[in-house]
Amino acid sequence: MRRRPAPFAFLRLQLRLWSAGLRQWLLSLGLMPDRDAPALAYAYAFYVAALGLLWVGTSWGALVSLTLQAAGALPQSARGAIAAAVPGLFPLALVALAVAALLGMPLRLSGADVAHLTGASVPRRLLAALRFLPSALAVAAIALPVGTVLAVLATDAASHYLAATAAMLPLAVGAYAFYWALGLLRLATARTAPRALLWLVPVATLLLLLFRSPLLAWPGQTFIRLAVTGTVQLSGLIAWLLAGLLCMLAAAGALRRPLLADESLRRNLLRSIDAGRRWNPAIAAQQRRAAILSRRRPYLALPRVGGAGLLAARGALCRLRYPPSLWGLVRAAAILLGGLDLAILPLRGAGWVMWLLIVMLYQPTALTEEFQMDEDPLWRQFIAFGSPRLLLYDALVPGAVVLLAGIVDVFLLHLPLAGAASALLLLLALLAVATLAQAVAAAAGPARRLPLPDILPQVVGYGLFALFGILLHAALVAAVVLFAYAAVLARLLEGRKSSAARAWPGRADGSGPS
Amino acid sequence: MPEATPPLLRAVDLGYRYGAFQALRGVNLALHPGEIVALVGRNGAGKSTLLRCLAGWFRLEEGQVDLTDATSGGRDARVVLVPDTPSFYAELTAFEHLQFIAQLHGRRDWRDDARRLLQALNLTGHERAYASSFSRGMQYKLALAVSLLSRPDALLLDEPFGPLDALSSEALWAELQRFAAEGRAVLVSAHQTPGMVAPHRFLLLEGGEIRAEGTAQELKLRYGLASLSGEDLLRAALHGEAEA
């Protein structure tokens, strides 16, 4: 049997993939792509295409008209400021693309791609070029309206925004090709860690800015010049586009197939985990964490301490080894401090509703990450402390971080001493309630003794804070009420039976080994 | 003979239900110091539920579990269960799991024990790897190493031989024998037992009830078997029931 050469076979496969994708789109529009379709079906296809073009044209006109009206309504000073800022957006976009290229992966293969392509002799440049093409078209489709809006905002109604819009095509696609080149170059080196080269970005940007590099400034200046004067530097634009494409193809030639396959599979795994986040965020986060850490080398070490110090040190070590968990802590601190500021500043309005909404949507679960890990029955049976005491030790590090942020917040607000003291007391009470409510909610499982809905402890706690702290602005009263509620939650937690009860019979209240 | 001493753990009329389904019914058993007992039964017989009830992971609905340790002046015995799919702290390495538990228990002489356990269970060379990156068999061995390091009085193992290769199963059995020889007790659940596994007693659980109990010799005589493994006992007992 005659075998087709790999590049042609791949080309044919890619065409079939595109054709299948197009077929899906057509089917979703009610078109049945079939060679034997009746003439009426073709007439319907033309009708849909005409309708689509009409929609694009009308939307474009509406966008231009709306932007012109908005620009006209702006004072001259504001328009001047926007015009001055627009060229600066281009270098910013280039730096953001560079960061995205080093952290992300422009060329990602599916599991089937990895199985079929990495072992075959498909030229790497052809592979990259064919995968680049559809995404570059999408970038161009986004760049056109963005170019229109920027050109109209940066100049006046009589400007040459159409020329500037057209110039956005080579500018955006060229920049996108540079993004691909950098992303592919990372997969050409032996170091696979996405963050390994990230330090280069701020250093290179700083150097380019220090020497007032024309490379960073050129796209923005060209765009503005076109929008104002209509003068087209065609050769420059073509050179920019070609340079991007050539860099991309050169980087694709140096691409290492095993690295590409390995990282594609890893990212596909993370993507499939993220897909399950909506249904079970805790398990998705746990799987994501394990998948990421399994590729990293451990740094720092568990110190040789015992008891509470060991639990706190373990918590700090875990967070330092997996920095995204620090982001959760920052978010928790921001939510709690936002509530504190609403309570202590003389603000009026419905801000408390917004705060309640945010705190319930983005619950500060990061405060109890360690406790939730320790609550796994396997590990809980090795820990002799009772639940309230374990929570106290586990929440030491995250609690200290939030309290420290609170002290800075109160200091920046220049409150009088008494006001600052009551604000910190209120934050401490809110922190205790947030932590205990999360812990009580996490105390689920067959051994659970709390016949409460998971959400109830938090709804009551944040509701009490909103009522007494924010609505009534009674910081001290709110602190007393919240501390009383925290005591109730602690009692509930204490009454819960865990796997430690049998492993430390009669001693799971903290009287076990140090 | 291990049964000469009072039991470390005694379950009396134990019952547990998942909603309307009665998973355990009137279970009575005792674990004596120095004893290794195999709990055999088919999938869904209630083995894992029984172990979780004994370990206190599930709140008891019927019956009670008594813990005593005659060797330490009346102190209650410590019971630790290793589940069939243990989970780990994602950010801690294998060795740090051992370190964490040893330091939490205030042990000073843990390093030699930890290294010996890792070596015995064929985990040497993987100490610095994150435990969450381990295969299922390696994870089970690590959970077992941590449990042994914490020195419980009774160790309950849920399906330990399922994820292990033949050599690791041998190593595990040797460790369990060593553990029991120190006057501690082991209860191992299994739906199949490797050839070298020779427990002091067998318990057959079927439909949430103990259907047969005894030493290998007693059960061989009762069912007229030439040899006895968990599978033999299961087959013979179920066959006998069907005939009856």
What labels describe this entry?
heterodimer, A: 514 residues, mainly alpha, 22 helices, 73% helix, 0% strand, B: 244 residues, alpha/beta, Rossmann fold, six-stranded mixed sheet, three-stranded antiparallel sheet, 7 helices, 9 strands, 34% helix
- What does the oligomeric state look like here? heterodimer
Approximate helicity band of chain A: over 70%
Indicate the mean pLDDT of chain A: 82
Mean pLDDT of chain B: 87
Shape of chain B: globular
Largest sheet of chain A: none
Instruction: State the low-pLDDT regions of chain B, or none.
Output: none
Q: Order of strands side by side in the largest beta sheet of chain B?
A: 5-6-7-3-8-9
The CATH H-level homologous superfamily of chain B: P-loop containing nucleotide triphosphate hydrolases
Please write the string of helix (H) and strand (E) elements of chain B. Answer: EEEHEEHHHEHEEEHH
Total DSSP E strands of chain B: 9
Strand content of chain B: 15-25%
**Cα end-to-end separation of chain B:** 33 Å
Task: Based on the coordinates given, report the CATH architecture of chain B.
Answer: 3-Layer(aba) Sandwich
Helix content of chain B: 25-40%
How many structural domains of chain B?
Answer: 1
Number of helices in the DSSP assignment of chain A: 22
Largest sheet of chain B: 6 strands, mixed
Give me the CATH fold name of chain B: Rossmann fold
Domain count of chain A: the total is 2
Summarize the structure.
By secondary structure, chain A is mostly helical. Chain A is built from 22 helices and no strands.
In words, what does this structure look like?
The complex is a heterodimer of chains A (514) and B (244). Chain A is mostly helical and 514 residues long. Chain A has 2 domains: 74-265, no CATH class; 309-503, no CATH class. Chain A has 22 helices and no strands. Chain A has helices at 6-28, 39-73, 76-103, 111-117, 124-154, 161-186, 200-210, 214-229, 234-253, 257-275, 281-293, 307-321, 324-344, 351-361, 369-374, 377-380, 387-394, 396-412, 417-442, 456-471, 475-494, 500-503. Chain A is globular. In chain A, 33% of the residues are buried. Chain B has helices at 47-55, 94-104, 110-120, 136-149, 166-181, 216-223, 230-243; strands spanning 9-18, 21-31, 36-40, 62-67, 79-82, 154-158, 185-190, 201-206, 209-214. The mean pLDDT of chain B is 87. Chain B starts with 8 loop residues before the first strand and ends with a helix. Helices cover 34% and strands 24% of the residues of chain B. A 6-stranded mixed sheet of chain B has the order 5-6-7-3-8-9, with helices on both faces. A 3-stranded antiparallel sheet of chain B has the order 2-1-4, covered by helices on one side. Chain B has a single domain, classed as P-loop containing nucleotide triphosphate hydrolases (Rossmann fold). Chain B is α/β, with parallel strands linked by helices.
